[in-house]
């Protein structure tokens, strides 16, 4: 009788312990789900902030590029050649979007007047364009080789 009562009490204690364990596991699972949901929300917010920051920086870079192009009076063919070097995988449509984003219409249409440029200026322009192409190309190749 004592053994049976002792076994019964042990069974009840084990049942209570199992019930308590099940409650703890459910509470922990709920906590982990909530933590995971909060973590995902935080990652989403971080991603959105990163996109906003990138777009803002891109806009500022476009403004700076437009300002520099206007101040330096970079001819459109030189600028387009530079874009082709910097963005070799870009399609013509993508390059046009970049050019349109950087250059106002009036600047695009006002390219160098060939009549006013003397022979020496033409040679200097051609030499500087080739030099710029070479420098940019060499820099890109060097950076690529460093990353390998």
Structure description:
It contains five helices and no strands. 86% of the residues lie in helices and 0% in strands.
Query: Helix- and strand-based class?
Result: mainly alpha
Strand content: under 5%
Query: Which runs of at least 5 residues are low in confidence (pLDDT < 50)?
Result: 106-117
Mean pLDDT, to the nearest integer, reads 79
Largest sheet, described in full? none
Q: So how many helices?
A: 5
Describe the global form: rod-shaped
Tally of strands: 0
What Rg do the Cα atoms give? 34 Å
Approximately how much helix is present in the residues?
over 70%
Q: List the helices and strands in order.
A: HHHHH
Straight-line N-to-C gap? 80 Å
How would you briefly describe this protein structure?
The protein is mainly alpha-helical and 148 residues long. It has 5 helices and no strands. The longest helix is centred in the first third of the chain and has 71 residues, at 2-72.
């Amino acid at each position: 009788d004592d053994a049976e009562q002792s076994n019964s009490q042990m069974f009840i204690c084990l049942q209570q312990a199992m019930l308590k364990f099940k409650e703890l596991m459910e509470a922990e699972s709920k906590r982990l789900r909530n933590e995971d949901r909060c973590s995902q929300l935080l990652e989403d917010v971080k991603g959105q902030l990163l996109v906003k920051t990138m777009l803002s920086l891109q806009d500022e870079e476009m403004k700076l590029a437009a300002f520099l192009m206007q101040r330096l009076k970079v001819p459109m063919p030189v600028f387009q050649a530079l874009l082709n070097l910097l963005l070799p995988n870009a399609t013509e449509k993508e390059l046009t979007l970049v050019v349109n984003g950087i250059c106002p219409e009036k600047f695009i249409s006002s390219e160098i007047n060939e009549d006013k440029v003397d022979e020496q200026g033409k040679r200097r322009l051609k030499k500087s364009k080739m030099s710029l192409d070479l420098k940019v190309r060499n820099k890109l190749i060097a950076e690529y080789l460093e990353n390998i």
